[in-house]
Amino acid sequence: MNARITNNVNPTYDDVLEWGYDEDYYFMEQDEDLLLYGLDYVLALLELAQDPACPKQSYALCIISQFARMAALHRKPHDLQGLEQIIHALQSTEPSVLDWQHYVRRLLIYQQHPLMVGKQKAWNMAQDLLLGIGRIGTVKQEKHDKADTWHFSLTTSIQEHLFINRRTGIYTYERAYLQRSNSHFGMKS
Question: Are 107 and 141 contained in the same domain?
Fold first, then answer.
């Protein structure tokens, strides 16, 4: 196995396809997935995700899922409109791609207001907006001092919070980096 790292920060459609079919080909040493977050890459990544013979099939699907999740979580209108056009035109029989298509439809519905949100709907929204497809973690429902708000959290290397208004469905997102004590690293305060 000979890894090839190109440091290509602006890959073309063909570059993405080449990357997808070569297990040893990387665009960057770290955070390669973040490089591919963008509407410009969704169609190429979908092509890879639809091919069961592609060695990076599930990775490609995770990348477009997390891109869609971030677009919805941060309400990026340009990206959401582009995703809506893509899922309306998408014709696939690959089950995981169909799941992605349904997932993006849900993310788009969460943008429509007012949207009454009961407990199960709030839980589903939290799962979709904090985890989505391919991200690992445990979403927890938190107690909140406002009766009209659902509060959910996810702790990974950061603490993430999602607040959903029960009457309107409008949500807000907050994140905070976890503070580590010096004693954790063997240092004294």
Answer: no
Residues 4 and 88 in one domain: yes
Coil, strand or helix: which one is 125?
Answer: helix
Would you give per-residue pLDDT tens digits along the chain (189 residues)? 688 888 788 999 999 999 999 999 999 888 889 999 999 999 999 999 999 999 999 999 999 999 999 999 999 999 999 999 999 999 999 999 999 999 999 999 999 999 899 999 999 999 999 999 999 999 999 987 788 999 999 998 899 999 999 999 999 999 998 775 444 433 333
Fill in the amino acid letter for 138.
T
Residue 87 inside a domain? The answer is yes
Cβ(28)–Cβ(7) under 8 Å?
A: yes
Domain that holds residue 82: 1-112
